[in-house]
C-alpha cells in the first residue's frame, strides 16, 4: 500500500511539473485558436448575459425536440405494425442499439458499485 502511495505521489509530481512547464503555453495557444468565440469585453455581466441566452435558447428549443420525439416514436410504431416489411439490416441495427444500451447499463452498474463485479467491496 505504501509503495502504491509513493508511486501515486511521484506520478502527481510529474504531472504538476508538466503542467507548470507547458500550462501557460497551452493556455495562450487555446485562446488564440478560439479567438472568434471570445466576447469583448470579458466581464461578469457579459458572462451572465450569455448564460441567460443559452438557458432561454435551450428552453425555446424544447417544443421542437418534443415534436421530433413524437415523430420518431410514430415511425417506430409504424415499423412495429409492419414487422414483415423490416429488412435484416434494420433489425441488425436495432439489435446492436439494444446491446449497446445494455452494455452501458452494465458499465454504469459496475461503476456505481465501485468497479467491482460482484458488489463485494474489500
UniProtKB/TrEMBL annotation:
Indicate the principal place this protein occupies in or around the cell.
mitochondrion
Q: Does the keyword Heme apply?
A: no
Task: Return any one Pfam family short name.
Answer: ATP-synt_G
Localization of this protein: Mitochondrion membrane
Keywords of this protein's UniProt record, alphabetized?
Answer: ATP synthesis, CF(0), Hydrogen ion transport, Ion transport, Membrane, Mitochondrion, Transport
Query: MF terms per GO, please?
Result: proton transmembrane transporter activity
UniProt KW Mitochondrion keyword: yes
**BP terms from Gene Ontology:** proton motive force-driven ATP synthesis
Listed GO CC annotations: mitochondrial membrane; proton-transporting ATP synthase complex
Which family does the similarity line name? Belongs to the ATPase g subunit family.
Protein name per Swiss-Prot or TrEMBL: Mitochondrial ATP synthase subunit G protein
Q: Which organism is it from?
A: Colocasia esculenta (Wild taro)
Amino acid at each position: 500500500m505504501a509503495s502504491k502511495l509513493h508511486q501515486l505521489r511521484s506520478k502527481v509530481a510529474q504531472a504538476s511539473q508538466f503542467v507548470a512547464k507547458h500550462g501557460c503555453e497551452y493556455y495562450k495557444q487555446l485562446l488564440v485558436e478560439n479567438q472568434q468565440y471570445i466576447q469583448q469585453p470579458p466581464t461578469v455581466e457579459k458572462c451572465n448575459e450569455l448564460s441567460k441566452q443559452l438557458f432561454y435558447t435551450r428552453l425555446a428549443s424544447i417544443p421542437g425536440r418534443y415534436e421530433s420525439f413524437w415523430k420518431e416514436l410514430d415511425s417506430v410504431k409504424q415499423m412495429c405494425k409492419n414487422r414483415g416489411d423490416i429488412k435484416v439490416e434494420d433489425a441488425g441495427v436495432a439489435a446492436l442499439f439494444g446491446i449497446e444500451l445494455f452494455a452501458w447499463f452494465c458499465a454504469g452498474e459496475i461503476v456505481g458499485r465501485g468497479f467491482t463485479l460482484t458488489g463485494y467491496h474489500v
